[in-house]
Amino acid sequence: MTEEQPGKGIVHRATEAAAGIVDHAADVGERIGDLGQPIVDKVASAGAAAGRLLEATRRFVPGEVEAARARRLRRLNRTALPNLYDIHPEVRTAPRRELGVMTIPVSAVRGTAVEGPPQRGGDFLPLPALKSTNWEGRWRRLLDAQRRLAILPPIDVLHTREGYWITDGHNRVGVALYGGQDEIDASVTHVHIPGMEEHEPATGALQSVLEDSRQVRAAGRGRLSRGSWVEPPPGRDVKGKPGGR
User: What is the pTM of this model?
Assistant: First the structure.
């Protein structure tokens, strides 16, 4: 018995199998006279169609979808994350109201609400020059937690008409982005900016704080949207995972 070469993939093996079927059909066809060639043609056509389908599947495997997402996000890491206080300085004295813990869309998180020099890129992770060994360890731990569907603490955000702004939890949002996660738990404080139309998240979005309920919801959110992890997100070649804020 010939040992299979390690480089052979599923498409290659399927093609070989289809070729074997065609050869067998040809042998059968020779025994049944005039019906032989039509049978061979039909089997050959089916084998070719199967090969094309398998090849198309190979081109669009989840890992490749994720790799494209990671490349796009890494480009965002080169530019500073928008800062709420730079856009709306009046937020410092604007009225606030705590809304509690709710599930929010990751896509609705607009930027940071931490004052000071830019430290985060557009993917919510530290700018390239600020990525340290300690941060890489935290990243690995967070990524590992997400893969295990562990329950992570809610992030802390301010909410304005434009969306949500992080005060704590930037790395957790980065993990959600790179992993294709659609939603994330957040402790939300609404900020009413004078002169802007009042708009708060729907109260129906408020989540139960019962532990059993949270576990069920966490497992559901753990199902990633199309694409799964195949390579580390940030600028460095880190095999891995996240941590921290």
Answer: 0.56
